[in-house]
Amino acid sequence: MQPDEYFMLVCLVSVSLIWFIMSIPVVRLQVPKIYFTVRSWWWMLLLLFAAYISGALMLALFFAMVGIRAMYEVGRILHPIGKQQLIKKLVQIHGNPQPLLVAPELIKNKSGKLSVIDWLVIICVGLFTVCAILLSFHLINHHQGVMLFFVLFSSQFSDVAQYLCGKLFGRKWLPQPLFIKKISPNKTLEGAIVGPIFSSLIGGILGYWLINFPFWQCVTLAFSIAWLGILGDLLESAFKRQHGIKDTCTILAGHGGILDRIDSLLLSVPAFSLIYWLVL
After folding, report:
1. Which residues pair with 256 in a beta bridge?
2. Residue with more model confidence, 91 or 239
3. By C-alpha distance, which of 257, 201, 278 is closest to 74?
4. What is the DSSP track for 164-209?
């Protein structure tokens, strides 16, 4: 088996095992959200790996569908009727969505024009989609498809580390900056520090194994991807708070919408694409 095949097998087996443990009634009652999160992860990984194995065209179509769906979620939030329908769904699932607005100058003005945050999200979703499609064709056709796994999972490892660190040590050591508290109340400074460090180490090992780059280069890339992921996450959180919603959709149980899942990739994938074509 090739390294990428080993990696896909390990990922699916690991998530399947966690899903099995989470499905035990006693465990599921204690952490119901984690059960649904892991279940959604399993299906997302299955679709991603199936597209990867099927070749460049199917992988490009996969990312095209992801981008189209994310753009649809943005458009629905920007449309008054669509947003009202979404809020009704969120209330049914989560109860009161408790909208939290960011700074007044970032809020959509009374004339109905799009704010700076709105335009940034639209541009970033478009860039992510285009770059992911181009990378899919180029990397698969040049037998370098594993580099996609490196950039995707370096970002996701950081998300997991930030979540775990925030739950275990959040707000115990360092105060939460005011602007982060307004935009993303659940994000902690401890998680923002530990997440990229953890991701850089795991990403370094993953990159050295999968793409055979020097370890220090993989660590540097993974660290940069992780921090760009945090910025993308904050951008998407500001967009949601601005429009007074908790999630961009309900399609992924435990995650929210597609945009909620790819928020950490909105900046990291375009940045990695630029580095790949100019430097690597």
Report:
1. 252
2. 239
3. 257
4. HHHHHHTTTSSPPPHHHHHH-TT--HHHHHHHHHHHHHHHHHHHHH
In whole angstroms, what is the distance from residue 57 CA to residue 50 CA?
12
Q: What is the DSSP code (8-state) at residue 97?
A: -
Q: How far apart are CA 248 and CA 239, in angstroms?
A: 10
- Extract the tokens encoding 6: 């080993």
Q: Look at the alpha carbons of 164, 167, 169, 174 in this order and tell me if their dihedral is positive or negative.
A: positive
> Apex CA 233: angle with CA 52 and CA 127, to 5°?
55
Give CA–CA dist 264/127, Å, rounded. 13
User: Between the CA of residue 253 and those of 75, 81, 248, 261, what are the distances in Å?
Assistant: 21, 23, 12, 11
Helix (H, G, I), strand (E, B) or coil at 77: helix
Give me the mean pLDDT over the 234-243 stretch. Answer: 92
Identify which has the larger pLDDT, 235 or 92.
235
CA distance 51 to 49: 5
